[in-house]
């Protein structure tokens, strides 16, 4: 029977074309236009990009983006790894409640970003009913300006993001941890390796692929996060927590600047793509 | 491996090996299944002891308990008299070769071999020297920088052994190390392990399901079945004086021919025929399970006394000898070992005979041996059947 792959690929090509390629092409078109949310493009040119480079706030936004992303990625990896290893260990020892623990962690993941922002806004609230500050006060510690201090606001945004995204990292690491041949641990134990040595010499190297893959995915996810920050701080105080994706959202939906927003969105796509390529290169090197 | 190597190893303080004692160890799993029950075993310093039995007989569990990877539910494990039952694997001076080798895939061969030494505090330089020496013994010199994934099955096997010997442990554990190799490689690795042990007489506990491997490699064989020791003895003791029906049927290739029979007034009867007249006295009349090794049966004149008419069904020429499956009156289907030059063809009708001296008798109820062939003059087996 002759292979006719094109025929079978057609449906998915149509779906992807409709859902992804056409909108992206349209964003490219809009980025070179003067379109706003209120009227379609009238002229085309590079003015959108020029304005973007001249914008004074772009530096601050990019700096915020870097801080938010790096801190989130590190936090997500550590928290995800920790929970995954705990759950895997609990599984091996047949401890009860491991499924419940996994479910609880996963529950954070299915909370919508906006709801996540609102939940943490309530927790971080500096009003007398703010859960975290009340608890701190209860044990005699000073209150913290979680959302009103520019630097603490960034910490809070990262915390909220890590809380929500840990589940994803955990799933990746949990699957990878379970795929490690248990014989390797037995061999290492017979070789005299203590638990910490087994973690360093067996677990970490064996998870290298998962760590790299997870870094790519989590970085891209974090770069695209704006909904929880929008609900938590709205990008403030001032521009203290305004990251690139939120900046794009603000520019398009508050300033109605569809052309400029599209240009920035393409910058975001370019950053994500570049990062992906870097990590793929790392991944390839990790194999040899 | 040459003589200098052996001398170097001795000079370098190559361990002669530990004395291993298992005292009534048992292992029950959480589900209630019993893997090993009340097992006693002693391995003398330098001895090569093989645990053999069908899968699920508890041999691997026993080995894992000695390694410290599994905790016994009952009993004590002593290495050189010291109770190590409560110690983890990392604290027992043992080295283990796993069935699937369990090499660290992310480390080079050299790092795989040196890992145990480094973890036990050896310096980089000491480790490098020890690894180089072990690599020389196992002819792995050219592979030290490779990853396990780039090696063939046989090479991985040698690396796994290298990882074990490089530490010069007091006790070697092998968990079916050759079962993943093809038949030819298995035979050559068998020789290599044996040679290694001759040069490097470390106490060794070796697990296999392959009775040929057990017979060819062991100083002493421990035949296990259903979590119990059936018999302990030298390969020849186990072969010549199987303590039970199980051992008789397990050891030997082809195994012993077994058939139900009756003792009547000092003669053996089967299917209403008097097969062997002069079974040495001392056993009461009654039903027995009788056994004859394939080499105990011979062709005979059909007219000779006690000759059993038989028909040849199947031939397995092996070159040096020929195995034949006969259906004989009184015996049923039996394997017979013939000279390779014997003129045989399927369908041949002839008669078979045996000496009463070669007869093994077992209690049909309990399976324990009542009488073992013509070997009364040999010393009694070292182990006791349980």
Automatic annotation (TrEMBL), chain B:
InterPro entries registered for this protein in UniProt: AAA+_ATPase, ABC_transporter-like_ATP-bd, ABC_transporter-like_CS, ABC_transpr_MalK-like, ABC_transpr_MalK/UgpC-like, Mo/tungstate-bd_C_term_dom, NA-bd_OB-fold, P-loop_NTPase
Keywords: ATP-binding, Nucleotide-binding, Transport
Pfam family name, one: TOBE_2
Keyword Cytoplasm applies: no
CDD domains: ABC_MalK_N
GO MF term set: ABC-type transporter activity; ATP binding; ATP hydrolysis activity
GO biological processes: carbohydrate transport
Positions of the ABC transporter domain: 20-251
A GO cellular-component term linked to this record: ATP-binding cassette (ABC) transporter complex, substrate-binding subunit-containing
Source taxon at top rank: Bacteria
Family according to the record: Belongs to the ABC transporter superfamily.
Protein name, as recorded: sn-glycerol-3-phosphate ABC transporter ATP-binding protein UgpC
Organism: Histidinibacterium lentulum
């Amino acid at each position: 029977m002759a292979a006719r792959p094109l025929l079978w690929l057609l449906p998915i090509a149509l779906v992807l074309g409709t859902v992804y390629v056409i909108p992206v092409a349209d964003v490219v078109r809009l980025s070179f236009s003067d379109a706003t949310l209120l009227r379609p493009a009238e002229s085309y040119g590079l003015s959108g990009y020029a304005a973007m480079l001249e914008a004074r706030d772009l530096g601050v936004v990019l700096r915020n983006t870097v801080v938010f992303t790096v801190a989130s990625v590190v936090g997500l990896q550590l928290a995800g790894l920790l929970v995954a290893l705990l759950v895997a260990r609990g599984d091996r020892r047949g401890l009860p409640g491991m499924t419940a623990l996994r479910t609880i962690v996963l529950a954070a993941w299915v909370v919508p970003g906006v709801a996540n922002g609102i939940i943490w806004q309530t927790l971080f609230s500096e009003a007398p009913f703010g859960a975290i500050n009340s608890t701190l006060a209860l044990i005699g510690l000073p209150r913290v300006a979680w959302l009103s201090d520019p630097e603490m606001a960034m910490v809070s945004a990262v915390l909220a993001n890590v809380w929500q995204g840990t589940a994803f990292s955990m799933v990746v690491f949990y699957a990878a941890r379970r795929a490690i041949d248990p014989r390797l641990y037995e061999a290492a134990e017979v070789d005299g390796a203590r638990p910490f040595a087994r973690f360093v010499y067996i677990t970490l190297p064996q998870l290298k692929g998962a760590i790299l893959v997870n870094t790519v995915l989590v970085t891209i996810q974090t770069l695209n996060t704006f909904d929880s920050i929008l609900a938590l701080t709205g990008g403030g105080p001032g521009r203290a927590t305004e990251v690139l994706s939120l900046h794009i959202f603000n520019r398009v939906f508050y300033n109605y600047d569809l052309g400029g927003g599209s240009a920035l969105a393409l910058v975001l796509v370019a950053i994500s793509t570049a990062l992906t390529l870097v990590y793929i290169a790392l991944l390839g090197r990790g194999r040899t | 491996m040459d003589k200098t190597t052996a001398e170097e190893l001795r000079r370098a303080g190559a361990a002669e090996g530990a004395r291993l004692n298992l005292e009534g160890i048992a292992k029950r799993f959480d589900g209630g299944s019993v893997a090993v029950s009340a097992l006693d075993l002693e391995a003398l310093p330098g001895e090569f002891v093989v645990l053999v039995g069908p899968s699920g007989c508890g041999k691997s569990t026993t080995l894992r308990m000695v390694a410290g990877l599994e905790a016994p539910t009952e009993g004590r494990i002593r290495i050189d008299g010291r109770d190590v039952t409560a110690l983890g694997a990392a604290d027992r001076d043992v080295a283990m070769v796993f069935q699937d080798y369990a090499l660290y895939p992310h480390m080079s061969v050299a790092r795989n071999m040196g890992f145990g030494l480094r973890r036990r505090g050896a310096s980089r330089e000491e480790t490098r020297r020890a690894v180089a020496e072990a690599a020389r013994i196992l002819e792995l010199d050219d592979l030290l920088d490779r990853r396990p994934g780039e090696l063939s099955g046989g090479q991985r096997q040698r690396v796994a052994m290298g990882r074990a010997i490089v530490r010069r442990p007091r006790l070697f554990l092998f968990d079916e190390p050759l079962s993943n190799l093809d038949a030819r490689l298995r035979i050559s690795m068998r020789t290599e392990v044996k040679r290694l042990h001759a040069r490097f007489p470390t106490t060794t506990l070796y697990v296999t399901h392959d009775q040929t491997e057990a017979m060819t490699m062991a100083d002493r064989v421990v035949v296990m079945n259903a979590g119990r020791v059936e018999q302990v003895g030298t390969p020849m003791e186990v072969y010549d004086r199987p303590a039970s029906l199980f051992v008789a049927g397990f050891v030997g290739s082809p195994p012993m021919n077994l058939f139900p029979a009756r003792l009547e007034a000092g003669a053996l009867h089967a299917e209403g025929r008097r097969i062997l007249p002069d079974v040495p006295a001392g056993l009461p009349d009654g039903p027995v399970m009788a056994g004859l090794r394939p080499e105990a049966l011979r062709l005979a004149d059909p007219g000779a006394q006690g000759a059993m008419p038989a028909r040849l069904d199947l031939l397995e020429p092996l070159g040096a000898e020929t195995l034949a499956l006969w259906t004989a009156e009184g015996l049923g289907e039996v394997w017979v070992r013939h000279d390779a030059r014997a003129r045989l063809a399927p369908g041949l009708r002839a008669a078979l005979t045996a000496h009463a001296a070669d007869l093994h008798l077992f209690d049909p109820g309990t399976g324990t041996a009542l009488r073992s062939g013509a070997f009364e003059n040999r010393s009694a087996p070292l182990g006791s059947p349980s």
